[in-house]
Amino acid sequence: AETDESLRHLRQLCERSGMPDAILVPIEAALLSRAVDTAIAHSKTEEPLISVFFGQSKSVIVAAHRQRLLLVRQVDFGTDRLIDALAAAIEGTNPENAHDLAERLLFQFGLPKAGDTCDVDGRSFSASDILPAIQRAAHAGSCIRIIQPALQRLVVEVRQSIRFGLADSDRSPGILIAGSGASIPRLHEAFGTELGCSCFADNSCQP
């Protein structure tokens, strides 16, 4: 709830539903708490960790080392930003349900490899069809690294977190992709290639 009026309406709704003692927590606070808990749980090794916890509209970047919290940043970037960018690229051929189609493409196929064919609703999309206008592709082994302008902004935020959150000797951290972004195939590979760090995903940690 962002205003007192919204909070009052939510409280009335809880009371009508038989939950008079319900505790209302801002979604940003819940996302922040989940992100910090996830990062701390994964920071038991000697290697420092940068965790990128994706929400729907916001994400939280956390730096941690040996279960010690070093930095927490919330950024206005979530999976909706990726879906919107993908929808804009395909809406010319299917404007009526471009957003729904983009969401399914993103979470089923993620960042496709060269030559991949993605079948959704009886339609086939090749890797070059999915992001025809906004992709910047570079071969990284057998996988095409596709960094959308929107995603590139988050990469910059992660770089800044590494710079300001970690000591000079710890500038090659492990990167954890968690939250809803961990369910996007090959997203962690794109981050790892772009940042030059080992990167892994844990899709058991959802917002």
Number of strands: 9
Counting DSSP H or I runs of 4 or more residues, the number of helices is 7
**Beta fraction of the residues?**
15-25%
Q: What is the percent of helical residues?
A: 25-40%
Low-confidence stretches: 131-147
Cα-atom Rg, whole angstroms?
19 Å
Order of helices and strands: HHEEEHHEEHEEHEHE
Largest sheet: 5 strands, mixed
What is the CA-CA span between the terminal residues?
17 Å
Order of strands across the widest beta sheet? 3-2-1-8-9
How confident overall, as mean pLDDT? 77
The coarse overall form would be flat
Helix/strand/pairing category: alpha/beta
List the helices and strands and how they pair.
Layout: H1 4-16, H2 27-41, E1 49-54, E2 59-65, E3 68-75, H3 79-90, H4 98-109, E4 117-120, E5 123-126, H5 127-130, E6 137-140, E7 143-146, H6 149-165, E8 174-179, H7 187-195, E9 199-201
Parallel strand pairs: 1-8, 8-9
Antiparallel strand pairs: 1-2, 2-3, 4-5, 6-7
Helix pairs in contact: 3-4
Describe this protein's structure.
This protein is α/β, with parallel strands linked by helices. Helices cover 40% and strands 22% of the residues. The chain is built from seven helices and nine strands; from the N terminus they run ααβββααββαββαβαβ. The strands form three sheets. It has a five-stranded mixed β-sheet, with helices on both faces. The chain has a two-stranded antiparallel sheet with strand order 4-5. The longest helix has 17 residues, at 149-165.
Features:
207 residues, alpha/beta, two-stranded antiparallel sheet, 7 helices, 9 strands, 40% helix
Quick structural overview:
With 207 residues, this protein is an alpha/beta fold. Helices cover 40% and strands 22% of the residues. The strands form three sheets. A five-stranded mixed β-sheet has the order 3-2-1-8-9, sandwiched between helices.
